[in-house]
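Structure in, sequence out. Go:
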């Protein structure tokens, strides 16, 4: 924390001495709120994280495109290991906020802009986020690191292969790929989507499935989400492909946490997070198997 805070305080952007205040909630970066004169900013401190395929050039490109699209705050400054964005004074969502229908409808509009409009603003090289590649790479990282979960890997990889086949051919959009509730901020008039660490081209089913699984949407809400997004009646085929991708989203989140257990230095209970996501994955797989 001290090194990160020192780095945040020493950025060339500031007009004078600043006092970075730790901002809780981050499980990939160390974040601060900084007041400089009459302006407030969020400073995200973090280098590349190869084990999670997080590359800061990609985060920067996505953050800029999201700001230009109007779904995320302005990028004010960046330098190696640091990204500075405008501070948004608003409510950071929890799962129950996302589940409220009026909020879910607003979130869907943000997601549609992200998927459809951001490709028009992305500049330079950016990544593709293919969850099944990520899962296979995580398995290798867990084996290399001597994870306590090694015995689970063959079963998890078999599950991934089954899910990839079930998803089938995909459309390509520009996805956020990490739709946790805390990545939505409501300022009273609009919802902002933040934290573009995992952004990249992907199937829309991944964001839709991630939104549902990370926020505990009901089956009725999931059907509404699919119908509203695709503007058509949900077929059995679409529902099954979506459910398979939802399972893949949970599988990735589970293995992300397993990798973080052995590689992250942030103060966070990753073991408990692994267990929580494993339970959600098992429940989603049971639903898929009943289809």
């Amino acid at each position: 924390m001290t090194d990160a805070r020192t780095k945040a305080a020493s950025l060339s952007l500031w007009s004078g001495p600043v006092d970075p205040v730790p901002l809780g909630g981050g499980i990939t970066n160390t974040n601060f709120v900084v007041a400089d004169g009459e302006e407030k900013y969020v400073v995200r401190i973090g280098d590349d994280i190869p084990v999670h395929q997080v590359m800061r050039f990609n985060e920067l490109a996505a953050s800029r495109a999201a700001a230009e699209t109007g779904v995320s705050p302005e990028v004010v400054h960046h330098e190696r290991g640091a990204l500075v964005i405008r501070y948004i004074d608003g409510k950071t969502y929890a799962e129950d906020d996302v589940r409220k229908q009026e909020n879910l409808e607003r979130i869907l509009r943000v997601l549609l802009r992200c998927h459809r409009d951001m490709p028009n603003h992305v500049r330079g090289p950016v990544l593709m986020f293919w969850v099944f590649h990520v899962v296979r790479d995580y398995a290798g990282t867990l084996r290399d690191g001597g994870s306590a979960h090694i015995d689970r890997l063959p079963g998890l990889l078999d599950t991934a292969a089954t899910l990839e086949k079930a998803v089938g051919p995909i459309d390509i959009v520009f996805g956020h790929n990490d739709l946790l509730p805390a990545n939505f901020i409501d300022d009273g008039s609009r919802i902002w989507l933040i934290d573009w660490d995992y952004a990249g081209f992907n199937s829309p089913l991944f964001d839709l499935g991630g939104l549902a699984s990370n926020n505990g949407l009901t089956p009725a809400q999931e059907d509404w989400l699919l119908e509203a997004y695709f503007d058509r009646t949900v077929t059995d085929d679409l529902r099954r492909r979506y459910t398979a991708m939802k399972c893949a989203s949970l599988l990735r989140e589970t293995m992300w946490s397993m990798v973080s257990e052995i590689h992250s230095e942030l103060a966070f209970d990753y073991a408990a997070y692994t267990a929580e996501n494993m339970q959600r994955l098992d429940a989603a797989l049971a639903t898929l198997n009943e289809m």
